[in-house]
Amino acid sequence: MAKLEARGITKYFEHESHRLQALGGVNLKVESGDFVCLVGPSGCGKSTFLRIVAGLEKPDGGQILFDGRPVTETGPTRIMVFQEGALFPWLTVRDNVEFGLKVSGIPREKRAEISERYLDMMQLTKFAGSYTHQLSTGMKQRVAIARALVMDPDVLLMDEPFAALDAQTRDLLLVETQLIWARTKKTIMFVTHNVAEAAVLGTKVAVFSNRPSVVKREIPNDFPRPRVPDDKELIDFQHEILQELRPEVRKGGGAGAAAAPAAAEEAPGEGASGANKDDTDAEGTVAVEEEKRREGGTR
Ligand SMILES: Nc1ncnc2c1ncn2[C@@H]1O[C@H](COP(=O)(O)OP(=O)(O)OP(=O)(O)O)[C@@H](O)[C@H]1O
Ligand SMILES: [Mg+2]
Fold this sequence. Notes:
Blueprint: E1 4-15, E2 18-30, E3 35-39, H1 46-54, E4 61-66, E5 69-70, E6 78-81, H2 93-103, H3 108-121, H4 137-149, E7 155-159, H5 167-184, E8 187-191, H6 195-201, E9 204-208, E10 215-220, H7 233-251, H8 282-294
Parallel strand pairs: 3-8, 3-9, 6-7, 7-8
Antiparallel strand pairs: 1-2, 1-4, 4-5, 9-10
Helix pairs in contact: 2-3, 2-4, 3-4, 6-7, 7-8
The site of magnesium ion has 3 residues, from helix 1.
């Protein structure tokens, strides 16, 4: 039985007095221990889908099954990590990490024992007494991940957790995330705009179509680990993802194209000027990767 299964998930929103269908019947099976990366055009409904899986939002149709049982509300089995970490600025790093445990009524000593383990895992021990404004963006994101992990969820739901990071910090976290995943055997669903990130992390990549979104294709990825974004062997895999993604990004007018502006019709090389854009917009990534390929075909 799948750990998580989405069956025909549909979702509508009111948009300027008309009904906008975000999700058009999403089907997805996630096995225990899978690391599924979700990619798709901006505005197609990835975050909405993740919130529905978390139980933070209700679908208009379809069902999420967790261990075969319908999900109707939030629960400690499925924990979400948001892009901006959403930490409490008035709490120290340690108290942020222990927050969920405290709310769950775990006694102080046990809390300290658990948080120490994860602070160590995320290399935050030295900063346990610091406040979040004293941390870098990458460190905050690690606190957010530690805070989710202490709850020992079966499923970790991550919505573009690395989007705001600089490339170096992101590369470090890509390696750390693979190690944590290998060590904890968590089932992870991970939304990203960055195909390199998806190729490095995923046991499979689910490509979402333009709205109303469905899972257009699931691409398994069994390249050996640990993987790094520079792995030459992964470049072809990234292109396979892009081939599915590009027509969907192009289709998206309006909100769907918001984060993928004129780049859609740009000659591949031109987009390379946005080399640091590759973590925020799919077509930017397309352009950057194609530029790399054109440069002597070394990748
Ligand atoms: N609470 C809401 N009220 C109205 N419309 C909404 C709401 N939440 C999402 N939408 C709309 O639903 C669509 C999907 O939004 P969602 O945030 O899930 O997309 P996304 O794929 O995560 O986009 P991005 O990649 O830019 O983060 C968008 O058109 C958005 O405007
Ligand atoms: Mg989103």
